[in-house]
Amino acid sequence: MTTPPVRLLIADDHAVVRAGLRALLEGEPDLAVLAEAASGEEAVRLAVSATPDVVLMDLRFAGPGSGIDGVEAVRRLAVEAPGVRVLMLTSYSGRGDIVRALEAGARGYVLKAGPPEELFRAVRGAATGALALAPEVVGELVGQVVSPDQDLTAREVEVVGLMAEGLSNRAIAQSLFLSEATVKTHLVRIYRKLKVENRAAAVSEAVRRGLLDLN
């Protein structure tokens, strides 16, 4: 008896990406793409109606009226279609993004830049309920266990957020009711933890790690 193919829904805001993924996935005899979605809301609606086995969900949907992000879509699907497994397929490998997605209920996290075989394994694994993580993602999570002191504190994230708004040390101190000396101490720790040397690099790295969202 032939095993039915794993039925997929691709959710990504770029039509070219969706077309490329469809061509890639449908080249595998045991995988079939049911539908495509260009937004988080559409992904939820189609997943509820079509009930695919696995949703390949982008992390962020850009453009006007893009609505909810991939993590919020995962949360909604956990309630509205609990039998559907969601696999995050994204360009972002920051630990914050990874943890948010897994906590929301995603069954895996794979990078778009990874090899096709890695994606195929993740899809098949997610379809069976297994947790499917790209090697880079595992490295991020293991790094957190080995070096937890590299995480920014809530206060340090606040400081980086105000830096992103262009505030000076004095303005940050006034906003957070701190002394300028304390702000400078926070900056030293932030630079060390993020392994950067200036304010712009700190903001950029915080965004990359999913600690800061500038959208």
Question: Mind sketching the topology for me?
Answer:
Layout: E1 6-11, H1 15-25, E2 31-37, H2 40-50, E3 54-57, H3 70-80, E4 85-90, H4 95-104, E5 108-111, H5 116-127, E6 132-133, H6 135-146, H7 154-164, H8 169-176, H9 180-194, H10 199-208
Parallel strand pairs: 1-2, 1-3, 3-4, 4-5, 5-6
Helix pairs in contact: 2-3, 7-9, 7-10, 8-9, 9-10
Structural account:
The protein has 215 residues and is of the alpha/beta class. It folds into 2 domains: 139 residues, 3-Layer(aba) Sandwich (Rossmann fold); 61 residues, Arc Repressor Mutant, subunit A. 52% of the residues lie in helices and 13% in strands. The chain has 10 helices and 6 strands. A 6-stranded parallel sheet has the order 2-1-3-4-5-6, sandwiched between helices. Strand 1, helix 1 and strand 2 form a beta-alpha-beta unit. Helix 2 runs parallel beside helix 3. It is elongated. The chain starts with 5 loop residues before the first strand and ends in a 7-residue tail after the last helix.
